[in-house]
Design goal:
Blueprint lengths: L1 E5 L5 H14 L4 E6 L6 H9 L3 E6 L4 E4 L5 H7 L3 E4 L6 H20 L4 E5 L1 H6 L5 H8 L7 E5 L5 H6 L2 E4 L20
Parallel strand pairs: 1-7, 1-8, 2-3, 2-6, 4-5, 6-7
């Protein structure tokens, strides 16, 4: 089965991590690749230290990327050097190379059938930014063995991915404390 967690609301990665712990409880091995993330999130420490059945990898840098015109000036100023802004359709080549190289590892892992659950966290966003191509992802999805469940997370899942998925959950933001100026809090957002 292919599961997709998307939408503008909070909770996509959190839901995938919850599924990972459930899979471990059922005796499965789990592989998680977090695209566009570095080792800066609280759940990563717990997964690495307490769950030997989970292999966690990251494919990202210690900064965010965003297309020109998608962030307000005040947010850009607030993020400072922690964000790299690029022209629409022209993401940084070093980021493309990083994501595509690490996707090769993902393909080997998926095709091996050694993991019952494979989570590709934020792959939807990598697709949206053009860091990985549709053809590359579709080629992999066509080769997934029957004993492997795949979960893709991230806002902006493309229509073609939603169409081929077996389960799609859209997290919808109804209200968020960010609107009140509350910044990301350790243990809740990272």
């Amino acid at each position: 089965m292919l599961q997709v967690y998307t939408g503008s609301g909070k909770g996509k990665t959190t839901a995938a991590i919850g599924l990972a712990t459930r899979a471990v409880g059922a005796g499965m091995k789990v592989y998680i690749m977090q695209f566009m993330k570095s080792l800066a999130y609280s759940e990563q420490k717990v997964l690495q230290e307490r769950f030997p059945e989970i292999t966690l990898r990251t494919s990202g840098k210690p900064f965010f990327i965003a297309e020109e015109g998608t962030l307000s000036k005040s947010l850009q100023d607030k993020l400072g050097d922690s964000v790299v802004i690029f022209p629409k359709g022209e993401p940084p080549q070093d980021y493309i190379d990083l994501i595509q190289n690490d996707f090769k590892e993902v393909a080997e892992v998926v095709i091996s059938g050694n993991y019952g659950l494979v989570i590709l966290d934020e792959l939807n966003v990598a697709l949206h930014f053009g860091l990985i191509g549709r053809d590359t992802v579709e080629e992999l999805l066509d080769k997934v063995p029957g004993n492997v469940e795949v979960v893709l997370t991230g806002r902006g899942a493309p229509d073609w991915l939603i169409e081929c998925a077996d389960l799609v959950t859209e997290m919808k933001e109804v209200k968020h404390y960010y609107a009140k100026g509350v910044e990301a809090r350790k243990g809740y957002e990272y």
